[in-house]
Amino acid sequence: MKILENYKITTDTMALVEEYHQDYNSIIYDKNGTYYSKQTVRSLLNEACIERISTYDGRIKAVRQRFPYRKKTPLVICLQERICAFPTTSPDNYGCKWIFPYHLHMGTMKDGQLIASFKNGVQLTLSCSFYVFNRQRERTANCLNYFESNLSN
């Protein structure tokens, strides 16, 4: 188990999972491996936004001003790098998983559970319905496309 002091969200980040453990608070699925961090998922996301001259709250507020996504709002971290993520449940719920859709291959149902499969073969069990999963992917794509088109005008 590799516990990192400081993890920076990049284009290699695939998913973040909140996990209360005595040694860590989050599990990080990255193209290069699985890591653990004492930082919470929210602080990892906020730090990623701050690195790009904003905040988690500011990014969420911007999306909510343009879209009617009041719950499970997608987070656009960086337009230039196309880094964005969506929560599978309310971000306030314990165990909320944040998925970075660029790395997703597909979602499938197996034995009544939704499995997110990533392009590198990693699989993650999600606690949301297939409908919510697809809707969240769609919402995230809508946000990214909207803000990218406004940036280029």
Short summary:
This protein has 153 residues and is an alpha+beta fold.
List keywords for this structure.
single chain; 153 residues; alpha+beta; seven-stranded mixed beta sheet; 31% strand
Element pattern in H and E: EEEEHHEEEEEEH
Give the proportion of residues in helices: 25-40%
Strand runs, count:
10
Task: Categorize the overall geometry.
Answer: globular
The number of helical segments is: 3
Query: Low-confidence stretches at least 5 residues in length (pLDDT < 50)?
Result: none
Tell me the structural class.
Answer: alpha+beta
Strand order of the largest sheet: 1-4-3-2-7-6-5
Total domains, how many? 1
Mean pLDDT: 95
Q: Quaternary status of these chains? A: single chain
| Cα radius of gyration in angstroms | 15 Å
Major β-sheet profile: 7 strands, mixed
Distance between the termini: 46 Å
What would your notes on this structure say?
- The chain has 153 residues and is α+β, with helices and mostly antiparallel strands.
- Helices cover 29% and strands 31% of the residues.
- It has helices spanning 41-51, 56-66, 130-152, and strands spanning 3-4, 13-18, 26-30, 33-37, 75-78, 83-87, 97-99, 104-110, 113-118, 123-126.
Helix/strand layout:
Layout: E1 3-4, E2 13-18, E3 26-30, E4 33-37, H1 41-51, H2 56-66, E5 75-78, E6 83-87, E7 97-99, E8 104-110, E9 113-118, E10 123-126, H3 130-152
Parallel strand pairs: 1-4
Antiparallel strand pairs: 2-3, 2-7, 3-4, 5-6, 6-7, 8-9, 9-10
